[in-house]
Amino acid sequence: MDTSSDVLTGTGVSPGIVCGTARTVHNIDEFSAVRAGDVLVCRTTDPAWTPLFAVASAIITETGGMLSHAAIVAREYGIPAVLGVADALTRITTGTTLLVDGTYGTVREKPAHTGSIS
């Protein structure tokens, strides 16, 4: 994730908090790259994207609001969603572990655990 900002913000449209691996998707040809539990990061969604909601643990889009396709379907599937995150596709890198808060509309990179358990 872009390190110039610790927190990305958007509109929280489907409540909940999830930690998962970011998967940026630009078009329908990239759907097969999405794995169970991935956080889907995309520009927007439409009905063709609906199957990904059954796989993703959370949704982040660059556009959309409370009544957009992504918001409605995320609520139906009960997964957190943060929409309207400016430049999400360029600021979030596939493989980054994210903490997504769909209640408050925040996205943070989860720092790697550096300690050990004794």
Your description of this structure?
By secondary structure, the chain is of the alpha/beta class. The chain has one domain: Phosphohistidine domain (Glucose Oxidase, domain 1, 3-Layer(bba) Sandwich), CATH 3.50.30. The protein is 14% helix and 30% strand. It is built from three helices and eight strands, in the order ββββαβαβαββ. It has helices at residues 50-53, 69-77, 88-91, and strands spanning 7-9, 11-14, 17-24, 39-42, 58-61, 81-83, 97-101, 106-109. The radius of gyration is 13 Å and the shape is globular.
Question: Which terms summarize this structure?
Answer:
Glucose Oxidase, domain 1; 3 helices; 8 strands; globular; 118 residues; 8-stranded mixed β-sheet; alpha/beta
